[in-house]
Fold this sequence. Notes:
By secondary structure, the protein is an alpha+beta fold. It has helices at residues 49-62, 70-87, 141-156, 162-177, 232-243, 245-257, and strands at 2-9, 18-23, 28-35, 100-108, 112-118, 122-127, 132-134, 200-205, 209-215, 274-281. It has a single domain (2-281), classed as PPM-type phosphatase domain (Phosphatase 2c, domain 1, 4-Layer Sandwich). A hairpin with a 3-residue loop joins strand 4 and strand 5. The longest helix has 18 residues, at 70-87. The protein is globular.
Amino acid sequence: MVTVEQFTHRGIHFLNEDALVINEQASLYGVLDGVSSIVPYLSDKKETGGYIAAQTVKKYFESLDRVVQLTDHVAEANQKLRELMLQANINMKNKEGLWGTALALVRIQEDRMEFIQTGDCMILAVYQDGEVRPLTWRQVAHLESPAIAKWEEGVNKGLSNQKDLHGTVIDIIRANRFQSNTNGGYGVLNGEAQAAHFLEYGKINKSRLKHVILLTDGLFWPDRDVPSDRSYWSYIAQCVLEKGLEQYAHELLEIEEADPECLIYARFKKSDDKTGMVLHFNKP
């Protein structure tokens, strides 16, 4: 028996490019973080590439009656995304123009739980004794770190607005796009055939499993506000479970609202889309 707690909130842009996946029939649950192309794109319906990507993958997984192999299904969702881009005359060889989405998805079975991930969405397993077990890792953190350092350097030099700071890091952000689905880079569903090779997946048994937390990066707490004696993910899991997803997100939004130019907490936009899900396992 699973109880689902869910939350999603639009960031500073006009569309929420995150999405939730809930397919009770197939016991599939997940979060998606759409990634818009650097080359601007809007469809006839005024939808961005990141929005289309997340919604395409969401609809695919919510349409499944049953699941055979998660990796095959993710590869098929990625192929659907590729077909949509080809229909829109997107040059698949230009990574700056590709639409994409990060993904964290779990499938609940009687005695085990399968998981699959790409990008920097996170899945945390929490056990009855409170132990927190990250099942995934942030695949883009090593590429974002130099840009964050450059941003902080700009603040220290006296830059005081987000637009100027963004100008100092845009070349790094653009260069990072060329690392998608490459060794030394990161995995993302963006229609590239190689995306299938950069999926992280596995299965754990459900013995003593109490909660599973799925988060897009918009819900990651600022590093500097996590106590130095605490594990980052265990601190986040505790906060999410104690406060509830909505209150946790509300407090994060208050931090962002108080730092609109991103001077105190280095980040690339005032407020990112935020999506999370907590699966609570009730004892039979």
